[in-house]
Amino acid sequence: KEKSPSLLSEENILIIAHRGASGYAPEHTIYSYAEGEKMHSDYIEIDLQMTKDGKLIALHDSDVSRTTNSEGEVKDLLYEEIRILDAGSWFNEENPDLAQSVFKNATIPTLEEIFEHFGTNSNYYIETKRPEEYPEMVNQLVETLNKYDLLGEDVPRGKVIIQSFSEDSLRELHELDPSIPLIQLISFNHHARLSQKQIDKIRSYAVGIGPNYQSLSEPFVHNIRDAGLLLHPYTVNKKEDMERLINWGVTGMFTNYPDRLKEVIEET
Ligand code: G3P
Ligand code: CA
């Protein structure tokens, strides 16, 4: 699974399966993650939320209504209430051409279930969502990673990357374990721009940035790469965009279509 010499080598273009291969299967389910692995993605991307009783689960939204047959904020629901939800039928309804009857059995996985299913052979790119709402999230994430042998000296660097829009959350992680590679997510309104001071600040705790790809320009990409930072834009689904970004020098991308990115990498 590892690309040589290291996953985080600047020579690599990382394929990050965004919510799994979520263009083909319901996002953040074992089905979409498995599809991403089948397509030879480098990473399973996981968004984290926390239930009322403190379980870390994989879900993008802070409430369950878009992707399940129920409603309510995750922070107000017990895991017991969440584990029985149907997290796949919405996908079948919205994508009749991609619908599969097994998706009706899809559930919202806990972080532990994901690690139990995919083990230490897979690589994980985990986002702390709304960490200010969930003060225990960071500690529990590190504990869970340790429990599943995904952190530590014997683990290849880059096996787990942690990303967040929250600088505080990343700084907390950096203090807990400075060896974890961190990515600062950024949503630029228009054109991506960072001052040298901002770049230096990010470099003090993170190995790279994850910006919205629409904001990028070639000079910005060069600037970030020259600063020695990795650059993983989100969420790139069209081959023409993938090709352009690779030519500019990005070091990976979040995509709902890992198969497309693989083809583009092989062609360039
Ligand atoms: O984590 C990168 C990208 O996924 C950020 O956007 O909203 O899909 O989590 P979102
Ligand atoms: Ca994400």
Describe the protein's architecture and organization.
This protein has helices at 30-38, 79-82, 89-94, 111-118, 137-147, 167-176, 196-203, 218-226, 239-248, 258-267; strands spanning 14-17, 43-50, 56-58, 124-128, 160-164, 182-186, 208-211, 230-231, 252-255. By secondary structure, the chain is α/β, with parallel strands linked by helices. The longest helix is centred in the middle third of the chain and has 11 residues, at 137-147. The mean pLDDT is 96. The structure holds SN-glycerol-3-phosphate (G3P) and calcium ion. SN-glycerol-3-phosphate binds at residues 18, 47, 60, 127, 163, 185, 210, 234-235, 254.
Question: What name does CATH use for the topology?
Answer: TIM Barrel
Low-confidence stretches: none
- Count of the separate structural domains: 1
Main β-sheet: number of strands, strand sense, barrel status? 9 strands, mixed
Strands, total number: 9
Mean pLDDT: 96
Helix and strand composition category: alpha/beta
Quick tags:
268 residues, alpha/beta, TIM Barrel, nine-stranded mixed β-sheet, binds SN-glycerol-3-phosphate, binds calcium ion
Secondary structure layout:
Elements: E1 14-17, H1 30-38, E2 43-50, E3 56-58, H2 79-82, H3 89-94, H4 111-118, E4 124-128, H5 137-147, E5 160-164, H6 167-176, E6 182-186, H7 196-203, E7 208-211, H8 218-226, E8 230-231, H9 239-248, E9 252-255, H10 258-267
Parallel strand pairs: 1-2, 1-9, 2-4, 4-5, 5-6, 6-7, 7-8
Antiparallel strand pairs: 2-3
The structure holds SN-glycerol-3-phosphate and calcium ion (CA).
